[in-house]
Amino acid sequence: MKKFWKLAATAAAASLIVAACGGSDSASDTTSAPVEKTDVKVAVVYIGTTEDKGWSYQHEQGILQLEQELGVEVKRVENVPEGAQSEQTFEQLAADGYQLIFATSFGYGSPMAKVAVKHPEVCMQWATGAKFLLTKAGGGEFADFDALPTNLGTYFGAAEEARYLSGIAAGKATKNGKIGYVAAFPIPEVLRGINAFTLGVRSVNAEATVQVTWTKTWFDPSLEKQASESLLDAGVDVLAQHQDTTAPGVAAQAKGAKWVGYNSDVKEAAPDAWLTAPTWNWGPFYVKTAKAVAAGTCPSEEFYGDMKGGMVTLGSFGTSVDADTQSLIEEKKAAIIDGSFAPFTGAINKQDGKAWLKAGEKAELGALLSMDFFVEGVVGSAKG
Amino acid sequence: MNSNIWVLTSADSIAIATTLILAALGALFTERSGVLNLGIEGILLTSAISSFLAADSSGSIWLGLVVGSLVGSLLAGIHAVLSVTLRANQIVSGLALVIFGTGLANFLGKPAEGKTVTTIIEPLTFGPLSDIPVIGPVLFEHDIITYFAFALSIGSAWYLFRTRPGLELRATGDDPATVDAQGLSVAGIRIRYTLFGGLLVGLGGSWLMLAQSAAWHQAATTNGIGWIALALVVFAGWHPVRLIFGALLFGFSLQLPFTLQAEQITFIPSAFTQMLPYLATLIALIAFSRPGSKNLRGAPKALGNPFVRDER
After folding, report:
1. Residues 354-383 of A with CB under 8 A from B
2. CA nearest A382 in B: which residue?
3. Within this chain, do residues A253 and A349 fall inside the same structural domain, yes or no?
4. Alpha carbons A31 and A380: distance in angstroms, whole number
């Protein structure tokens, strides 16, 4: 038996070493690719594993599309913690000759920018990033926007559009007007999601409230389940979430409540509770960027995708979402896509009842990207 | 009344206490024989993922519980061989088990990452009993393993203090030389209870996976519960019944941060309330393990010392 464990441990160690060193020659292994291959070496860095059925999984779907359309093999590095260790990873990938590196987590930004300066020949792309945060004014190391490396771009999308639509489904589903939101970290991205969701809820259910509980986690099934249970104990009958697990769905289903997921269409995790979910489609961006790099340019813009461009999507509807609600959501979705409607359009009050946007006024993108407050209808603290 | 959040929080705390009781009881039996097993956290994690894989591939939760428990016993067996047979340093061996168990769990768990168990262990139904105000939801809406854990604690107190094998177990932890002189095998008893302890820890880890967490994600599945269980044994003065109260207290402190948020009691930052269980662990260890503390009366006197006949 001891021998077996030794073998298992050796296998584990060996697989780690292979994972760490392999792939440097991956671009040359693509002779069997069915489509005409594009000559570009691409790598992607993940915060978790591609099996998480959430954030990383959804990025992986986009990477798979890139591989198929360009006929290249992408190098994946999973479970890379944010901070110093990620800098080493980017440095190694650059040294190995990768021409395009996608970093799929917020905390990779400043290490990636450092490596971008050292390797101007490599095109770096930072998901969920904001260049402002790299400048002195935003707490970063670069003097101003002009000092930033030109081989660094960011990409993200207006999840708030899909959040708003999922809020409509939640507002229609609640019977007692109490909705719970299992929230991750008190940062603009999360606050924006909660606010857009709440505006969606209130557009069909003016008296409903959205009660927020913070877990300070991105992926922790046990804690997120506990947080969900406390919200359900407090009497909410619909749960929404920001984290990458399906724990809130499982908890909601056990108590007969409804559930709005996030990231991926994972109806099967809690089919009775499932309403819908804001989801991501990263594929077109990955394909477009890889093609640009193959053609010799590096997009260095701050890309902000939306429903119109197809980066932000809404998952399928659960069986309890009736036809009227579905068509209402489809109608709003069409209005968002043709530009006649945006979730953050006044009149909108802040949580304390003070006015934020006047009637008809639309929020600036900058205000959305630095959002640090809740809108009226949210119960809880925006500070975490 | 029965939908009051504090009533429901108490019910949740009792559920969360299940893993704590089983893991701490496992540690208690091991320690009572004189073997200190610090590897609880590693065993919990490996059992959790083993039970997940077994339940997921066979479709049977009960098979998952059995496999998870046996894997717990198997890992404890490594510690038993190293620390009892080979007389290695128990602290080093235990810590190695944590690292080994965590690594092994992550390796085995790779294909299960982010997956959800298809069926979880369902609570038992007691019909009208669940409708009794307060007592109904608190006492009559749990699953069989939770009831088993509480019953086992009480049974263990009887076993330890009222039976001959219990006496032999305590004697082995306090004075192995005398047990040896009685013609009993010190190594045999220690190995037996280390394996049994591992079995209980394994059951705790499996229950955590199949009833509580329901989804696998590396070390986040246990969140340090193994370490809290070790502190709980000290807190309880190595007494199985006192362990129940400690586990309830810690179970409550694990659920409390979310109840406070759900109740809009936000003058204490949530970052602080989420620290509470770990802070409570520290305080318990400092308060109850001072030299001369009454609590240490229950401590096995030969805890952590390998038995060598010549050194009598």
Report:
1. 379-381, 383
2. B266
3. yes
4. 56
Mean pLDDT across the stretch B140-147? 90
From B262, which residue of chain A is nearest by alpha-carbon distance?
A: A231
**Do B262 and A250 count as a contact with CB atoms less than 8 A apart?**
no
The verdict on a CB contact (< 8 Å) between A9 and B100 is: yes
Those residues whose C-beta lies under 8 Å from the C-beta of residue B164, and which sit 6 or more positions away, are none
In 3D space, the residue among A220, A236, A239, A225 whose CA is nearest the CA of residue B12 turns out to be: A225
Pick the range with the lowest mean pLDDT from A40-44, B91-95, B185-189, B212-216.
Answer: B212-216
Q: Which of A5, A214, A246 sits opposite B215 (nearest CB)?
A: A246
Q: Which two tokens stand for residue B221?
A: 């599945």
CB pairs under 8 A, 24+ apart, for B180-185? B180/B307, B180/B309, B180/B312
Q: How far is B296 from chain A (nearest CA, A)?
A: 33
The verdict on a CB contact (< 8 Å) between B115 and A51 is yes
Q: Do B212 and A225 touch (CB under 8 A)?
A: yes
**Which of B1, B74, B209, B258 is the best residue to mutate to test the A interface, defined by the most A CB atoms within 10 Å of its own CB?**
B258
The rounded Cα A225 to chain-centroid distance in angstroms is: 20
Mutate which: B9, B270, B276, vs A, most A CBs within 10 A: B270
Structural domain range at position A64: 32-157+282-305
pLDDT in tens, B53-105: 999 899 899 999 999 999 999 999 999 999 999 999 999 999 999 999 999 99
Average confidence (pLDDT) over B11-28: 93
Of B268, B273, B290, B281, which is closest to residue B20 (Cα–Cα)?
A: B281
Q: What residues of chain A lie within 8 A of the CB of B214, using their CB?
A: 221, 225, 247, 250
A80, part of any domain: yes
Check whether residue A335 and residue A214 sit in a common domain: yes
Question: Which secondary-structure segment (H or E) carries B218?
Answer: none
Q: A112 with A166, same domain?
A: no
> In Å, how far are A93, A190, A212 from A382, measured between CA atoms?
38, 10, 9
**A176 Cα to chain B: minimum distance (Å):** 14
Same domain membership, residue A359 and residue A228: yes
Tell me, yes or no, whether A9 lies in a domain.
Answer: no
Q: Which residue of A has its CA nearest to B209?
A: A222
Note whether A189 and A234 are same-domain residues.
Answer: yes
Domain with A47 in it: what CATH number?
Answer: 3.40.50.2300
* Residues A225 and A364 grouped into a single domain: yes
Residue A24, domain member (yes or no): no
Q: Which residue has the higher pLDDT, A177 or B282?
A: A177
Provide the number of structural domains found in chain A: 2
What is the length of chain B? 312
* Complex prediction ipTM: 0.81
A322 and A231 in a single domain? The answer is: yes
User: A230 vs B12: CB contact, 8 Å cut-off?
Assistant: yes
Q: Are B29 and B193 in contact (CB under 8 A)?
A: yes
Chain B residue with the nearest C-alpha to that of A78:
B110
Residue A197 lies in a domain: yes
Domain ranges of chain B: 17-120+136-226+300-311
pLDDT for the residue A36: 54
Q: Inspect the interface and report whether the beta carbons of B217 and A216 lie closer than 8 Å.
A: no
What pLDDT score does A231 carry? 95
Residues A212 and A225 in one domain: yes
Find the closest chain B residue to A1 by CA distance.
B74
